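ingest -> validate -> predict -> emit
validate: passed (alphabet ok, no gaps, 106 aa)
predict: started
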Amino acid sequence: MKADIQETHNLNRVPWLCRFSKYTIALTNAARDYDTACSIRTYVAAIEALRNQYGLDDKTLAWIDWAKKKADWFDPAVARVDELFGKREHEKSEDEKVLKRAGIYW
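emit:
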C-alpha cells in the first residue's frame, strides 16, 4: 500500500517536472541571447573608442548604429523587433532560432 502511494506521488510530479524543465531550458536559451547582446555591445564599445584616436567615417558610424540595434534584438530585456528578422523568440533553442528573414526562409 505504501509503495502504491509513493508511485502515485511520483507520477503526479512528472508534469510538474516537465513544466519546470521547459522553463529552465527557456531561461538558459534567453541567457545565451543576453550573452550575445553583451558581447556585441562590448565589441561596439571598442570600435567607438577608436573614434577618439582615429575618428570614424559615416559608414562606420552607420554600422555602429546597426550593431547596437542588433544587440537590442538579441537582448531579451529589450526585445527589439528587427526590420529584417522580426521578433526574436529568446526562449527557443539555437537550432530553432536559425536566422531567417521574417516571413521568407533563406
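Residues 2-54 form the longest helix (53 residues).
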